[in-house]
Amino acid sequence: MRKRDKKAVNTNLILLLLGRMVSDTGTSLQMVIIPLYIIDIGGSAATVGLFSFLALMPTLLVYPLAGVFGDR
């Protein structure tokens, strides 16, 4: 019987995890920086709240529909 060469580490998995880590880090930084930028350019706390609400709206509208379509 011939032994198969097995890699100790799956390279594609490592690349996926590293890419996901970089993407999540960038998203987290953006969620902190955008409100600070809005305040810096002269916006108020109400403007930051409005922006946060409007950024959440697509999620609130799409997730219930996606759940229904996913169940079917």
Q: How large is the share of residues in beta strands?
A: under 5%
What is the overall pLDDT average? Answer: 89
Helix vs. strand class: mainly alpha
Count every beta strand, where a strand is a DSSP E run of 2 or more residues. 0
State the low-pLDDT regions, or none.
Answer: none
Distance between the termini: 48 Å
SS summary, helix count:
2
User: What's the domain count?
Assistant: 1
Tell me the quaternary state: single chain
DSSP helix fraction: over 70%
Task: Please explain how this structure is put together.
- The chain is an all-alpha fold and 72 residues long.
- It has one domain (11-71).
- The protein has 2 helices and no strands.
- The chain is flat and about 70 Å long.
- The protein starts with 10 loop residues before the first helix and ends with a helix.
Q: How would you concisely characterize the structure shown here?
A:
The protein has 72 residues and is mainly alpha-helical. The protein has two helices and no strands.
Task: Draw up the topology in text.
Blueprint: H1 11-40, H2 45-71
List keywords for this structure.
single chain, 72 residues, mainly alpha, 2 helices, 0% strand
